[in-house]
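User: quick one, sequence for these tokens?
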């Protein structure tokens, strides 16, 4: 049996977890919108055409903010195409995904869906083919109450009250050559700065996210962040990070250790933000928005043969495995560990497109394997994150060396006196004996030990078979005063819930 120690103390805090850490993302891509959240002919559709079965699953995930409408899509999007009478809306070529966009769903419909999902909208503007002018008009359309051209247009579209959208993304992945209107760091920095000024002059209460690199592995990474922030610093609030993981080498020990690079990426971006802060002798802190993260690789090959120029083709429909859920658990733990600076994060995406929820057009909706760690973290990982001192047995992979078998974090929700430990045992062959010292938590008792475990790493949930789901372990965890002992099953995601 492998062994690990965790020491936490009630007074040693990382910081408050911003609930927006458990955000997600809906792009006009594949079947995320059409056949995902919206399908007027579906038996569960409501009067606006939204699938209730999907909404129920989204609500279970407790997603406080959803980024929209892209993604690469937004860099060619004219938001005006998606408002007003549906019969007058144009069908457009979406050059990002070689698809046809019918514009049945646009800003107002999505805002209405988000409200039904108990979520806020995180709106991205097009800084690819457009600029600050279209962006500030959209802010006016969404957030100004009345009495101006764009706010009155919204009212004429039947939406009396403003949407009051708080968080706005200044474009998407503008460093990527695949992006419509891609820019150099300096070009983007200037465009984003001028757009930011107009948007905040229109509504000073909004918060803005500038684009960081598309991934840690871009050759322009770090230089890009530094230049973009140098140009935008006083006008933006967050810098974005994006990162997806693949498992092309199909080597489990390295795959479940990919969270090491995820953490390195976050820490590097924090350093760059603080470097620019120092350079500018500023008192302002830029925080991070990790607004695209997930596993993405299963669908890449099949997507090459999907015919182009269809409405809602089945794109990026990754069917996730049990091992993917373990990595997603590790990534969630690392987001919580970095909650002092990561204030927003969006699991990309939410429905059908690299998503925790899958649907069949006209049929069922179901939970993928990665649904569960996200649901647990989002529901139980609220409150304050505590500093995790970890001593664990380790292993060497091919890419990563000295990898601890234990990945863990503890959160305390002072509102309801709940302490939760999220823990992954990365070892596929053996249990991990966890001994945790819970400083300042005497009197807390285990209420539940939930575990996702016991499946073949390649096991998936599909339309016909959905075996991968968590179970409650009994007798595996005990607490005596401030000492917790728990047996974490081989290759498992664990949620140990305690209450005073
Ligand atoms: O989430 C899928 C795509 O990944 C997004 O459109 C883009 O921003 C990223 O490259």
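Assistant:
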């Amino acid at each position: 049996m492998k062994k690990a120690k965790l020491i936490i103390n009630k007074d040693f805090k990382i910081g408050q977890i911003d609930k927006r850490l458990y955000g997600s993302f809906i792009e006009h891509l594949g079947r995320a919108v059409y056949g995902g959240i919206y399908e007027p002919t579906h038996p569960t559709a409501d009067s606006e055409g939204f699938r209730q079965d999907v909404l129920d699953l989204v609500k279970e995930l407790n997603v406080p903010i959803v980024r929209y409408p892209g993604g690469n899509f937004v860099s060619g999007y004219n938001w005006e195409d998606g408002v007003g009478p549906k019969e007058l809306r144009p069908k457009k070529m979406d050059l990002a995904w070689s698809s046809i966009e019918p514009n049945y769903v646009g800003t107002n419909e999505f805002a209405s869906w988000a409200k039904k999902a108990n979520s806020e909208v995180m709106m991205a503007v097009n800084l690819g083919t457009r600029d600050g002018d279209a962006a500030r008009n959209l802010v006016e359309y969404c957030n100004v109450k009345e009495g101006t051209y764009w706010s009155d247009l919204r009212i004429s579209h039947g939406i009396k009250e403003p949407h009051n959208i708080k968080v706005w993304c200044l474009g998407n992945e503008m460093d990527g050559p695949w992006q419509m209107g891609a820019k150099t760091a300096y070009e983007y920095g200037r465009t984003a700065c001028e757009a930011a000024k107009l948007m905040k002059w229109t509504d000073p209460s909004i918060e803005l996210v500038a684009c960081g690199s598309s991934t840690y592995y871009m050759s322009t990474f770090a230089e890009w962040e530094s230049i973009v922030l140098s140009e935008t610093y006083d006008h933006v609030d967050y810098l974005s990070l994006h990162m997806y993981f693949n498992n092309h080498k199909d080597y489990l020990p390295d795959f479940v250790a990919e969270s090491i690079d995820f953490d390195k990426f976050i820490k590097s971006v924090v350093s760059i933000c603080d470097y620019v802060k120092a350079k500018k002798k500023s008192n302002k802190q830029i925080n991070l928005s990790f607004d695209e993260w997930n596993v993405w690789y299963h669908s890449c090959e099949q997507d090459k043969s999907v015919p182009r120029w269809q409405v809602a083709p089945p794109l990026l429909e990754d069917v996730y495995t049990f091992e993917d859920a373990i990595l997603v658990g590790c990534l969630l733990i690392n987001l919580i560990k970095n909650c002092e600076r990561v204030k927003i994060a969006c699991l990309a995406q939410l429905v059908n497109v690299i998503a925790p929820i899958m649907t069949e057009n006209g049929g069922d909706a179901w939970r993928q394997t990665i649904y569960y760690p996200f649901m647990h973290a989002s529901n139980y990982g609220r409150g304050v994150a505590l500093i995790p001192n970890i001593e664990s047995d380790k292993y060497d992979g091919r890419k990563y060396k000295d990898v601890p078998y234990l990945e863990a974090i503890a959160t305390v929700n002072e509102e309801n006196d709940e302490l939760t430990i999220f823990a992954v045992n990365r070892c596929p062959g053996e249990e991990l004996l966890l001994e945790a010292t819970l400083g300042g938590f005497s009197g807390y008792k285990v209420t539940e030990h939930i575990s996702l475990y016991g499946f073949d790493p390649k096991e998936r949930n599909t339309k016909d078979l959905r075996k991968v789901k968590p179970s409650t372990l009994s007798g595996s965890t005990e607490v005596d005063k401030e000492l917790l002992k728990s047996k974490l099953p081989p290759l498992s995601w664990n949620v140990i819930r305690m209450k005073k």
